[in-house]
Recover the amino acids of this structure.
């Protein structure tokens, strides 16, 4: 905790002010159910330092990570001006680990105004001042979001105005982002106009402007539209990225991701077709992205299955918007009351000329995956999930084929006690290194509703990695107190991997030690 | 520092203009359902308990809860229970909601809360998050997370809340 004394006192003053504000809030009896959310995470142990030249376990360094977040939001409905006023705060304390500080240049943070916002609804108008998030269409030009696990936050501090009249909606937003993982400080503005003639139909257009503080100065116009007729719905979105000058991105996190020599001007298309017939839901999604650069304020649909099983999700395919096309077919159905089946196939790759189907040639970074899952509920006491996945991915210095199978069985002993067993095996063929190996995952859990559960997990690999070893054993205790407080205690070893959401990914280092997570309201 | 003082003053000034404690205990909202029609909570209060389950297509424990909600809906809907699943999927992933619900043949009400405004209204933070409301519109219980067996405890509470006459 490296604080200068002046900053330290300033933080204390802010804390006092924050607490005073909340006390005044509560004492006046704004609401019988007034609550403050508190989230705490504390890690203490050792983690792999990716910069180390030593072999496991000598490549580990101490990990001390602490994060505390207070947040609250109140809604006021009887006002002399306006229909509704919403006020929100979030107070953050963060002490990153040495690896996070080294990799991402994170520092100790004590921010009373980590998030602060006011939203006023006034008939057809809605004014939002403070920290704002927004998505235009499906995010081809603009999608701002936060994910604490990924250390990702593309939100802006600024303002947003929305105007609605009948079937028409107009939005405008302007603000500045804060430097964080994958995101640099940048000023952005955008406008969006959408017309909804009837439920299921919409057409819209938007224009986003990036000022060029730390990225290229860029304009991104886009259009979208969709309709639904009976069991069929179709959505289309097209966006362009127009660069004002040749300034180069200074975001060093992206250097691994952006392909060198990419065009600085590009466009992207997304098409989504959904059909529901004979009890089967079929989704067909198609992407044709050639934006030329990766931009954290644009996160279009990834067009692949994102959440699968423990082993298959640990090293997912990283979608790229600078130059990638692909498609996804997802079929799901419940042929019987007790049976649910899901099949997903996706394929992606770099552009091969003007071809509309991704090439499987290894020069074009191909990826494909087939995933099938069945859920069975044969009895009130039993439920079973079975699944299998098969994928192959090639990119520079990487070419792997993986096949995995998994099962999960839940048995309810009585109304309160239940037992869960999950196991998974994955066969990996590393075609670059010419090595074949297997990964295993086994997890058993006993739960006592509503008080919590205890989980024991074991993961092993037939390949003894120089970086993270070959076996990982962990135990986790989850305790629920009155349904409003949840404590998770973890002890043991965790394997590293890549965590991804919405196409944004963060490498997670292997960890051993203990972790306390608290999530509650008071 | 001045801006924090300004916020404090602003809040203090606004407090007398806000709702009273009694009025605030009944939370109301209007959201769009799967077909784009508007659903207002207060119009469904009065016939019996209401279960509001906040979920998202990317949340595995949320999806584990849903078959049990369907069973509760089938079992107690006629006796006055209203089950509402509120999807907090962003506009980007909203398109996955309808196929997911239809393919699993869930018949309870599903609503969209793309900016998590209603979730925050009920002081929710993480998913899954469940709110149980009685027939007077009072929030009687909130619950975060899901462990197998939670649905049995919920069913017991619902049975208690349904009056003997409503249980036939």
């Amino acid at each position: 905790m490296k604080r200068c004394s002046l900053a330290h006192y300033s933080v204390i003053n802010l804390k006092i002010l924050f607490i005073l504000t909340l006390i005044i809030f509560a004492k006046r009896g704004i609401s019988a159910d007034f609550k403050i959310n508190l989230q705490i995470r504390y890690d203490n142990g050792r983690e792999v330092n990716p910069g180390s030249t030593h072999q496991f376990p000598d490549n580990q360094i101490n990990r001390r990570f602490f994060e505390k977040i207070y947040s609250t939001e109140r809604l006021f409905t009887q006002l002399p001006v306006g229909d509704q006023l919403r006020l929100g705060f979030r107070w953050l304390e963060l002490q990153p680990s040495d690896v996070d500080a080294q990799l991402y240049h994170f520092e100790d943070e004590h921010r009373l105004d980590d998030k602060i916002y006011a939203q006023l609804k006034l008939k057809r108008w809605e004014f939002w001042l403070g920290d704002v998030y927004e998505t235009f269409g499906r995010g081809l030009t603009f999608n701002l979001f936060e994910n604490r696990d990924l250390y990702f936050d593309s939100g802006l501090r600024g303002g947003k105005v929305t105007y609605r009249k009948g079937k028409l909606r107009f939005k405008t937003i302007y603000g500045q982002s804060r430097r964080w993982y994958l995101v640099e400080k940048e000023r952005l503005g955008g406008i969006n106009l959408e017309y909804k003639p009837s439920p299921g139909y919409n057409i819209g257009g938007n224009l986003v402007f990036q000022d060029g503080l730390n990225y290229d100065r860029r304009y991104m116009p886009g259009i979208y539209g969709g309709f639904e007729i009976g069991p069929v719905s179709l959505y289309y979105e097209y966006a362009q990225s127009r660069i004002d000058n040749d300034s180069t991105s200074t975001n060093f996190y992206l250097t691994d991701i952006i392909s060198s020599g990419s065009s600085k001007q590009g466009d992207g298309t997304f098409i989504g077709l959904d059909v529901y017939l004979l009890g089967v839901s079929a989704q067909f999604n198609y992407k044709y992205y050639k934006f030329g650069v990766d931009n954290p304020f644009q996160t279009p649909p990834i067009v692949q299955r994102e959440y699968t099983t423990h082993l298959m999700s640990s090293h997912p395919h990283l979608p790229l918007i600078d130059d990638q096309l692909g498609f996804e077919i997802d079929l799901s159905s419940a042929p019987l009351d007790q049976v649910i089946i899901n099949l997903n196939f996706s394929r992606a790759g770099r552009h091969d000329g003007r071809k509309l189907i991704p090439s499987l040639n290894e020069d074009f970074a191909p990826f494909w995956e087939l995933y099938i899952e069945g859920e069975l509920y044969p009895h009130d006491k039993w439920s079973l999930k079975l699944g299998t996945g098969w994928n192959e991915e090639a990119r520079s210095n990487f070419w792997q084929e993986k096949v995995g199978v998994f099962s999960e069985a839940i048995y309810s002993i009585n109304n309160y006690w239940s037992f869960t067993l999950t196991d998974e095996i994955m066969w990996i063929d590393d075609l670059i290194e010419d090595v074949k190996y297997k990964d295993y995952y086994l997890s058993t859990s006993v739960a006592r509703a509503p008080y919590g559960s205890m989980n024991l997990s074991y993961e092993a690999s037939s390949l003894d990695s120089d970086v993270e070893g070959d076996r990982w054993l962990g135990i986790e205790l989850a305790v629920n107190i009155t349904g409003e407080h949840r404590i998770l205690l973890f002890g043991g070893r965790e394997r590293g991997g890549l965590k991804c959401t919405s196409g944004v990914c963060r490498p997670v280092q292997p960890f051993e030690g203990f972790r306390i997570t608290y999530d509650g309201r008071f | 520092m001045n801006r924090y003082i300004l916020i404090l003053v602003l809040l203090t000034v606004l407090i007398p203009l806000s709702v009273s404690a009694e009025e605030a205990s009944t939370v109301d909202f209007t959201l769009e359902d799967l077909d784009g029609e508007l659903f207002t909570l207060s119009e469904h209060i009065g016939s019996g308990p209401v279960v509001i389950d906040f979920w998202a297509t990317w949340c595995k424990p949320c999806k584990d809860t849903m078959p049990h909600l369907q069973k509760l809906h089938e079992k107690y809907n006629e006796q006055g229970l209203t089950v509402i699943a509120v999807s907090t999927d962003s506009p980007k992933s909203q398109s996955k909601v309808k196929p997911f619900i239809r393919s699993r043949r869930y018949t309870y009400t599903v609503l969209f809360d793309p900016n998590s405004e209603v979730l925050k209204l009920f002081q929710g933070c993480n998913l899954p998050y469940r709110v149980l409301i009685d027939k007077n519109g009072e929030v009687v219980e909130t619950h975060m997370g899901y462990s197998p067996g939670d649905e049995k405890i919920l069913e017991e509470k619902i049975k208690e809340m349904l009056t003997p006459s409503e249980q036939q």
